[in-house]
Design brief:
567 residues; Signal recognition particle alu RNA binding heterodimer, srp9/1; Rossmann fold; Helicase, Ruva Protein, domain 3; 4 domains; six-stranded mixed beta sheet; elongated; zinc; transmembrane helix; ATP binding
Length: 567
């Protein structure tokens, strides 16, 4: 087994080195090619410009003032003369068909000369007497440069466009090279969440405070002896109860960097990508140590091997193998701690949860009544809450709600308050929000026929009478025949105190209460309805648990179910 693990590690290390070296070579080659390609294209463009547009270029020469007056202005091809006052320059322009020719036989379409400052009027008069078309320019600063400006701008435009295209191509190449890189969220600034921002869960926070101390002062634990700092912490529990928030709070308390990635981000359709992302994520965590590496929904990649559709060699299992290898050879100094979250610890591979990998497994349970009260106060602290709001009563009414569900409840109450134009949130909005979250929106426009309304009233009265009459039934809280969601009416019962154990008499009372609706229909009406589907489903579930799990039947104290399942 040790030989196999060593061989696996060696293969992955060699594979990683080969991939990195090939990536570096490709990037270097592309960078060199990009530079020489730009030079080549610019040279081609310059050559084409010289060949095809040289005839349209301005050919210019300069002569003396005397030659300009005696020869140049008397040439039959002269079109006009421009006086550039600020530069003290005379410019004669000739048409293309009759250019001015000097003594060497060279032809020019522009001839210039410099005159002495203060002689503009004299020169102007001479030119006018000769009948020459005269133009005067007062601003000629940078005239030589301005004549070449269009060509320069064209070159710059071409150069910029070429760089843009090549950068896009390089971006595409980088995407291909980085396909196996981690899609992780790196908190460049340390998380600001503290344990004080997490209501309840005191035992869980106590376990995690020790992890925070590992990160803050690992020397304290090393100096005590051969103590090993936990390499991994697995947070497990029902969804919506703050596993991710707790992981961020540990990073915030310790003041370290926080990496976050979902387990599903590791798995792609291409084999080997997930394993590459695992390596990349662990490398990034080491670079910014001390840090916390958090994998949410780790069951997406860490479930039992051999359970995938692709057999024992699918992409998910390769990713899991790489994760196990990385955790074995990972940071032994305690500067980086791996945290993960799941609500299905039963399906995780045993090799992942053994000591030495996820050494510490911490339960994040659903909140009890006291914790629900604290959570409600936490989420309501920034809302205008009426002084008569009883958070203790609300906590009792929200049995079974998760932390996320309580947050949604307070938010819904605030939205209702705004909708009704009220200045503060009262018990009325909160109780309506509870019903909305549990059953759906009230259907005020849905009007029942008299017969249907009577039948629904009989049905709900049956539930209520049984719940009121039985000593072991939950306390009757509300009965209504106003439709909400898919329910035409409902009877709400609440436990007097937090349930820890399921007692037989209590289960019998629940069965009787759920079946009381149909019993009332049978007694008061000779035509029962099919509106008991939900009641039958819940009653059947309770009865199955009593027989198959709790051993409360004539079959004896036996269990007929697999206890593995969601927390």
């Amino acid at each position: 087994m040790r030989v196999f693990l060593f061989t696996t590690q060696f293969v992955y290390v060699i594979k990683g080195l080969v991939v990195k070296q090939s990536e570096v070579k490709i990037v270097r080659i592309f960078t060199k090619l990009r530079f020489w390609l730009m030079i080549f294209v610019l040279l081609i463009f310059f050559a084409i410009n010289q060949i095809f547009f040289s005839s349209e270029r301005i050919t210019e020469t300069e002569v003396s003032m005397g030659q300009f007056i005696n020869e140049v202005i008397n040439h039959p091809g002269l079109e006009n003369v421009v006086i550039k006052k600020n530069a003290d320059i005379l410019t004669a322009n000739f048409n293309e068909g009759n250019l001015w020719q000097n003594s060497d036989g060279k032809k020019f379409n522009v001839v210039t000369t410099i005159y002495t400052d203060g002689y503009e009027e004299t020169i102007t008069q001479i030119l006018l007497d000769e009948g020459i078309v005269l133009e005067v320019e007062n601003d000629n600063v940078g005239g030589g440069f301005m004549s070449y400006l269009p060509t320069i701008l064209l070159y710059l435009l071409l150069f910029g466009g070429l760089i843009f295209i090549l950068n896009r191509q390089q971006g595409a190449a980088n995407k291909a090279l980085n396909f196996g890189k981690t899609k992780s969220n790196i908190s460049k600034e340390k998380p600001t969440v503290k344990f004080s921002d997490v209501a309840g869960l005191e035992e869980t926070k106590e376990e995690l405070r020790e992890v925070k101390e590992f990160l803050e002062n690992p020397k304290k634990f090393r100096d005590f002896g051969e103590l090993k700092i936990p390499k991994g912490v697995l947070l497990y529990g029902p969804p919506g109860n703050g596993k991710t928030l707790l992981a961020r709070a540990v990073a915030g308390e310790a003041g370290v960097s926080f990496f976050s990635i979902s387990g599903s981000d590791f798995v792609e359709m291409f084999v080997g990508v997930g394993a590459s992302r695992v390596r990349d994520l662990f490398e990034k965590a080491k670079e910014v140590a001390p840090s916390i590496l958090f994998i949410d929904e780790i069951d997406a990649v860490g479930r039992h091997r051999g359970s995938g559709l692709g057999g024992g060699h699918d992409e998910r299992e390769q990713t899991l193998n790489q994760l196990l290898v990385e955790m074995d050879g990972f940071d032994k100094t305690g500067d980086v701690i791996i945290m993960a979250a799941t609500n299905r610890p039963d399906i995780l591979d045993n090799a992942l949860t053994r000591p030495g990998r996820f050494d510490r497994q911490v339960l994040v349970p659903a909140p009890n009544t006291k914790e629900r009260e604290e959570i409600l106060k936490l989420y309501a602290r920034n809302l205008p809450i009426d002084q008569n709001v009883d958070f203790r009563k609300i906590a009792q009414q929200t049995y079974g709600f998760s932390g996320a569900g309580l947050e949604n409840l307070i938010n819904e109450a605030g939205l209702l308050c705004v909708r009704y134009g009220r200045l503060s949130v009262t018990m009325l909005e909160i109780e309506e929000a509870i019903e909305k979250v549990m059953l759906g929106t009230e259907r005020k426009s849905f009007v029942l026929e008299k017969r249907d309304k009577q039948t629904v009233a009989y049905h709900e009265a049956g539930h209520a009478i049984v719940a009121y009459a039985l000593e072991d039934a939950e306390e009757l809280h509300k009965v209504t025949i106003v439709p909400r969601g898919r329910a035409l009416g409902y009877t709400m019962t609440l436990p007097e105190k937090e349930k820890v154990l399921e007692y037989r008499n209590s289960l019998w009372a629940q069965l009787a209460m759920f079946l009381g609706g149909r019993a009332a229909e049978d007694i008061l009406s000779d035509n029962p309805t099919g509106g008991i589907t939900g009641d039958n489903a819940v009653a059947t579930q309770i009865a199955e648990k009593m027989v198959k799990e709790y051993g409360m039947s004539r079959l004896g104290r036996r269990s007929f179910v697999n206890r593995d399942g969601p927390v």
